[in-house]
Amino acid sequence: MVAGGLCKAIQYHTQCLAIAKEVGDRAGEGRANGNLSNAYDSQGHLAKAIEYHTQHLAIAKEMGDRVEKGKAYGNIGNAYQSLGDFSKAIEYHGQDLAIAKEVGDRAGEGIAYERECCLLVLNLVSSTLSCICRPRPQLLVLDVCGFV
User: Fold this and answer.
1) What fold characterizes domain 2-144?
2) Phi and psi of 145, rounded to 5°?
3) Which residue ranges make up each domain of the chain?
4) Would you state the pLDDT for residue 122?
5) Which residue ranges in the chain fall short of pLDDT 70?
6) Element of type H or E holding 64
7) C-alpha to C-alpha distances, 8 to 14, 40, 94, 129, 142, nearest whole angstrom
8) C-alpha closest to that of 81 among 132, 33, 123
């Protein structure tokens, strides 16, 4: 049921995008791109989601819409977080945070801080684990020689 609903949502958002382009509604086009990206994100198609989020961001920049720009940055950050690319996620959420502060969106600012904090912890844990789990040549030599 959920997968079918998402497919139907993608179909409708695609139609919405086509109509917005046809009538020259750039704001509607941006929203449709944002909605399509969220639907693809929900399906786990993260590369496709990032593609539509990036289009949403480009339109928001073109129109000077700071709120939509912040949403797009936050959503791109979420997609990179899902991909495990915490550095890029932190970068995009940082831009979302800056915009939330600029436009006085205290709720958005709080969400952005929460995301940044979680990502910093995830990035630290990921870095620590890769350092701990990385084979050390000197230990391999000792193991091969029967000293470990």
Assistant:
1) 1.25.40
2) -85, 0
3) 2-144
4) 67
5) 1-3, 122-148
6) none
7) 10, 12, 33, 41, 59
8) 123
